[in-house]
Design goal:
Blueprint (H helix, E strand, L loop, with lengths): L2 H29 L4 E10 L3 E9 L12 E7 L4 E7 H7 L5 E7 L5 E6 L16 E5 L3 E5 L3 E9 L6 E10 L1 H40 L1
Parallel strand pairs: 2-5
Antiparallel strand pairs: 1-10, 2-9, 3-8, 3-10, 4-7, 4-9, 5-6
Helix pairs in contact: 1-3
């Protein structure tokens, strides 16, 4: 192989190894050693519900084992608060005609941007509905739900359905398999970077040695 090709090959390996390693480190920094990503935010609305709209998930998601993903939700409030996850069509039907605040953006590190939808109907207490796949209520409700395929909506309301919802919301997702992917990528990136650096070293060393050999 010509010296120029070897040099290009070594540089390519170094670049690939570097970015693969950075990507792996970014995953580890994002999810942490336990494979959990957590976002905490505070939210308040004068309406009757905070609605985190339409989380669309593939139907073939695994529901058990290491490949399953767990969604954890926590709410802290001064009032008795309801927290629930339900099928989007059922939630929309339950809240039809109700004044609600749809969360359109979750800011980092805190706060949300909402769009209010007007309405005059008073909903029944949310805990009375039977369509929730996961729910809890109290001053600090929390749920853990193994996600599955479909369209889902997260709702935070006062337990009696009254106006004025204010809460600190924590949303977390646990992906055990991400840790293993990150570890594999980190090893592959490190090896690729090492091989590329070795190729460059050998090419540069041979280039420095050639003039001396020619003059001997």
């Amino acid at each position: 192989m010509k010296r120029g090709l070897k040099l290009g090959f070594g540089i390519t390996l170094c670049v690939l190894g570097f970015f693969t390693s950075i990507f792996a480190v970014a995953i580890l920094a994002l999810v942490g050693p336990d494979g959990r990503f957590t976002l905490e935010t505070d939210a308040a609305t004068e309406t009757r519900a905070l609605v985190f709209d339409a989380i669309s998930l593939r139907e073939d998601l695994p529901r058990s084992g290491r490949l399953a993903a767990t969604l954890s939700l926590e709410v802290s409030s001064d009032r008795t608060t309801f927290l629930g996850v339900g099928p989007t069509p059922e939630v929309a039907r339950y809240l039809r005609g109700v004044e609600v605040a749809h969360v359109v953006q979750v800011n980092w590190p805190g706060g949300v941007r909402t769009e209010d939808v007007t309405g005059a109907r008073t909903p029944t207490p949310p805990a009375d509905a039977t369509f929730w796949v996961a729910s809890d209520q109290g001053s600090d409700p929390s749920i853990e739900w193994t996600v599955r395929g479909g369209d889902w909506t997260i709702v935070v309301m006062n337990a009696d359905g009254s106006q004025g919802v204010a809460a600190d919301v924590g949303i977390g997702a646990e992906f055990d398999w991400l840790i293993w992917i990150a570890i594999v990528l980190l090893v592959v990136g490190a090896v690729t970077l090492l091989v590329g650096a070795l190729c460059l070293f050998l090419v540069i060393r041979r280039g420095d040695a050639e003039p001396a050999d020619a003059g001997a």
